[in-house]
């Protein structure tokens, strides 16, 4: 066998690099560390123990070992560490020489056997050192080797509040402060913080984000638990900088990139340089301007939008000028078949207040007509508005019926049909107008004439139909349906003025509608890709005769409402958008920007109902409520403070964060298993407030002859659980505890402990298969609000109980079918500066019938809000 003549050092380096690249399986590092530690303990068994053996944090600690080292009393493991430190520390070598009484000169080389020669001894030591370094690089000494956990990163700048989370509580960090990298770091709402790593890398942390740092085999790992970061990675002399999320690992040597992680997965965006993303054993390299998502439900977004939160946005934006990616390019890949623009959006009449864009399907026109009229009749607000029109009655209804005739000619039309309705000067609705493109004008005209003649024979009350290529040459007369056919453009309406305006806009390529904010928002929706889209100009419909809005409604600057629908993988994805003139105000401004709602991590996968909210500063919200209700609210708060000694803003609201989660998570009987999770920044102040509230409530109940209220505490598993008992109100009793910046409350301590356990083992709602399957496919990794229901798990036992009840077989079947037919639903809300976006999947929420029939105005509570607003009544 021929020996390999390669350089032994190169072979050794290659082997070590292979070890570094190898990723141990889950738990392998801990098992290896335990085995090494056991062997080290065995090696030290029977050895004399010394006080200096506890920690080795400095050269002075190693100096203290010199007497034991010279006397041969050091355990084997400690001796290896001492000799390794000695070879790297001039100060320690000098101290050892002085302890031996040696002069500071090189000792003469002694003669002897090869085994006793310095070459052999130092070679053996070198081999041991290499072996030890290899183990350290592999991570098996993690937690064994003495080292400090402070100093790997520090806070460079902070705007807002950033906390270090530990089992003992959380600590507010300040600029210049080093962090304990083994503990979690969490940013509060409205916070932007920059950290500097020991290698010179900078990491900017977004609000409501959380991370920790750990040592990698060949560098440092940023463990992003949730939220977003932007990393300016310094050039790594050796090794890499890693970012680890729950579903991928990002590795770099020096570049600028961002990582966002949430319920839908992880999105990695590269601004400069390149990164490597590893997911499920697959590797992908991203260059500047490229983006990667770990889940197809997490849409790609423009890099400009991804980094818009950064305080260095302008600086980063300059880097993207050469590598920017457009929404359309992303979505054409991930949403094939969607429409990303509309020819008609720029040429619809100026006064359009309702806009509906439909895909050209064989049944879409008929469906639009049927649902539109049905919803108009069933919605009181729109019915009154519609029938008050001057041209209401048979003419408008007939015009909608004419749309049905286009079904037979759908193969001659383009990929979109648009319905537009104007508002007249009186505030009443104008006649609807249908617009489309034709792929064959000659064939279409012949087919249209045939269909219209057939329809005229069926509908004898209509005088005539007129087909024209220039409506400006016609005089309006009677009940006429006008069909505009010019080139490849088709439009149909009973309103000749609308067709004249359309003709002028088509010739110039633009109408005054293109300059409105209504057009701007519709154009934005198209750029993201649409299937079905519906828009209504609420600002116009809610104006009163004087043009003033209702300030006291809290939504005085509401502007438009849009609904769109997409179909992806056989599932309907529905979205709605409520826009405002300027920034959101009043109640509409209370929702915070989208962020991970960590409180959901304490809700189990079997929850029947879960609602999570991320709100702005609670103190500010209370101040706005006080301002809204005026002097009465001021008096009420003053009275509460006088009677209880509690200042609502300072003692109750200030200690709270911005997350609130409520869930029904467990059996309904005998006591509903509710659960509340509240983000808490100051648990000490909040606990003191709770104690005062309990004391005051106890006094009031006892004064009325009741049994009062008691607050007790119990230490269990190193955690304090509190229990509030209200004997007079059994359902009012509950338990709670504080954990990792949250207060968790439930009817019983066992349910609170279960919530903590669910979080520890990962059996949480955001990780459940059913929840993940319902996540809408968009660019958001977090939520401003989220509502989930899966009542089937709760109602199935009731259906089983129904089998023992005295009901008919037919009734029993109806009950069983109702339970089996129930599907889980998920509604998400995303609050932006001047809009609130809603998204849901399946048949719940904004389905096509609601969209086309203006069902958006019949959303729960929407109709009641609108009907009470002056300016909507009677329209």
Please provide a brief summary of the model:
The protein is an alpha+beta fold and 875 residues long. Strand 12 and strand 13 (265-272) form a beta hairpin.
Task: Describe the 3D structure.
The structure is a single chain. The longest helix is centred in the first third of the chain and has 21 residues, at 118-138. Helix 5 packs across helix 6 (90-100) and helix 18 (618-629) crosses helix 19. The protein is globular, with a radius of gyration of 35 Å. It has 27 helices and 35 strands. The chain has a 19-stranded mixed sheet, with helices on both faces. With 875 residues, it is of the alpha+beta class. A hairpin with a 2-residue loop joins strand 21 and strand 22.
Structural class: alpha+beta
Please state the CA-atom Rg, rounded to the nearest Å: 35 Å
Helix run count:
27
Helix content: 25-40%
How far is it from the N-terminal to the C-terminal residue, by CA?
97 Å
Overall pLDDT, averaged?
75
Strand content: 25-35%
Shape: globular
Low-confidence stretches: 1-10, 46-53, 103-123, 125-149, 322-336, 389-397, 544-550, 843-875
**E-strand count:** 35
Largest sheet features:
19 strands, mixed
């Amino acid at each position: 066998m021929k020996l390999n003549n390669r350089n032994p050092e190169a072979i050794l380096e290659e082997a070590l690099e292979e070890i570094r690249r190898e990723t141990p399986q889950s738990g392998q590092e801990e098992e290896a560390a335990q085995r090494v530690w056991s062997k080290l303990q065995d090696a030290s068994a029977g050895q004399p123990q010394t006080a200096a053996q506890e920690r080795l944090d400095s050269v002075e600690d190693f100096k203290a070992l010199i007497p034991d080292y010279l006397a041969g009393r050091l355990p084997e493991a400690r001796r290896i560490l001492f000799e390794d430190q000695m070879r790297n520390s001039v100060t320690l070598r000098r101290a050892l020489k002085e302890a031996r009484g040696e002069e500071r000169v090189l000792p003469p080389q002694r003669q002897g056997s090869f085994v006793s020669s310095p070459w052999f001894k130092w070679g053996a030591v070198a081999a041991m050192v290499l072996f030890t370094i290899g183990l350290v690089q592999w991570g098996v000494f993690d937690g064994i080797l003495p080292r400090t956990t402070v100093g790997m990163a520090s806070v460079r700048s902070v705007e807002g509040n950033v906390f270090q989370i530990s089992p003992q509580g959380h600590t507010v960090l300040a600029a210049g402060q080093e962090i304990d990298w083994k503990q979690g770091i969490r940013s509060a709402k409205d916070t932007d913080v920059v950290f500097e790593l020991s290698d010179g890398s900078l990491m900017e942390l977004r609000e409501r984000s959380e991370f920790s740092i750990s040592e990698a085999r060949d560098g440092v790992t940023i463990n992003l638990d949730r939220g977003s970061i932007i990393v300016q990675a310094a050039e790594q002399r050796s090794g890499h900088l890693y970012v680890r999320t729950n579903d991928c690992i990002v590795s770099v040597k020096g570049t600028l990139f961002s990582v966002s992680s949430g319920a839908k997965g992880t999105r990695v965006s590269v601004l400069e340089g390149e990164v490597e993303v590893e997911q499920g054993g697959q590797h992908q390299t991203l260059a500047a301007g490229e983006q990667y998502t770990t889940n197809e439900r997490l849409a790609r977004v423009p890099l400009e939008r991804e980094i818009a939160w950064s305080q260095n946005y302008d600086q980063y934006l300059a880097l993207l000028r050469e590598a920017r990616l457009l929404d359309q390019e992303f979505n054409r890949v991930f949403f094939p078949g969607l429409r990303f623009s509309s020819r008609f959006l720029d040429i619809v009449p100026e006064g359009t207040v309702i806009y509906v864009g439909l895909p050209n399907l064989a049944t879409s026109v008929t469906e639009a007509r049927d649902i539109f009229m049905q919803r108009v009749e069933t919605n009181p607000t729109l019915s009154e508005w519609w029938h008050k029109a001057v041209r209401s009655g048979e003419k408008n209804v007939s015009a909608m019926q004419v749309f049905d005739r286009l079904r037979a000619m759908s193969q001659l039309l383009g990929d979109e049909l648009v319905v537009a309705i104007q508002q007249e000067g009186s505030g009443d609705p104008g006649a609807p107008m249908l617009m489309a493109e034709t792929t064959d004008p000659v064939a279409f005209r012949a087919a249209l004439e045939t269909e219209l003649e057939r329809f005229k024979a069926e509908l004898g009350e209509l005088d005539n139909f007129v087909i024209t290529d220039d409506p400006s040459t016609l005089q309006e007369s009677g009940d006429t349906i006008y069909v505009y056919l010019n080139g490849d453009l088709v439009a149909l309406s009973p309103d000749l003025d609308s067709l004249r305006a359309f003709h002028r806009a088509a010739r110039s390529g633009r109408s005054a509608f293109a300059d409105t904010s209504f057009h701007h928002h519709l154009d934005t929706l198209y750029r993201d890709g649409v299937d079905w889209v519906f828009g209504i100009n609420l600002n116009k419909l809610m104006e009163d005769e004087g043009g003033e809005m209702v300030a006291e409604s809290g939504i005085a600057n509401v502007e438009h409402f849009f609904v769109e629908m997409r179909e992806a993988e056989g599932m309907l994805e529905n979205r709605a958008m409520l826009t405002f003139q300027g920034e959101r105000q009043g109640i509409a401004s209370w929702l915070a920007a989208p962020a991970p709602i960590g409180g959901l991590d304490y809700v189990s996968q079997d929850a029947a109902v879960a609602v999570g909210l991320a709100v702005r500063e609670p103190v500010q919200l209370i101040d706005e409520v006080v301002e809204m209700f005026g002097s009465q609210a001021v008096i009420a708060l003053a009275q509460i403070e006088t009677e209880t000694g509690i200042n609502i803003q300072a003692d109750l609201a200030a200690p709270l964060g911005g997350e609130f989660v409520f869930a029904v998570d467990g059996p309904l009987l005998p006591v509903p298993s509710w659960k509340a999770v509240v983000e808490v920044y100051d648990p000490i102040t909040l606990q003191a407030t709770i104690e005062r509230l309990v004391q005051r409530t106890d006094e009031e109940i006892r004064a009325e002859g009741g049994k009062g209220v008691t607050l007790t505490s119990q230490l269990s598993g190193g955690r304090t659980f509190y229990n509030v008992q209200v004997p007079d109100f059994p359902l009012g009793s509950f338990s709670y505890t504080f954990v990792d910046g949250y207060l968790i409350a439930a009817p019983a301590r066992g349910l609170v402990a279960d919530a903590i356990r669910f979080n520890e083992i990962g059996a949480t709602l955001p990780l459940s298969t059913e929840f993940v399957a319902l996540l809408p496919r968009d660019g958001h990794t977090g939520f401003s609000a989220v509502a989930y229901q899966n009542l089937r798990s709760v109602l199935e036992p009731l259906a089983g109980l129904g089998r023992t009840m005295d009901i008919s077989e037919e009734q029993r079947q109806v009950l069983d079918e109702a339970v089996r037919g129930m599907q889980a639903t998920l509604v998400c809300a995303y609050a932006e500066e001047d809009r609130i976006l809603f998204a849901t999947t399946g048949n719940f929420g904004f389905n096509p019938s609601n969209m086309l029939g203006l069902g958006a105005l019949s959303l729960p509570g929407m109709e009641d809000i609108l009907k009470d607003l002056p300016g909507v009544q009677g329209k």
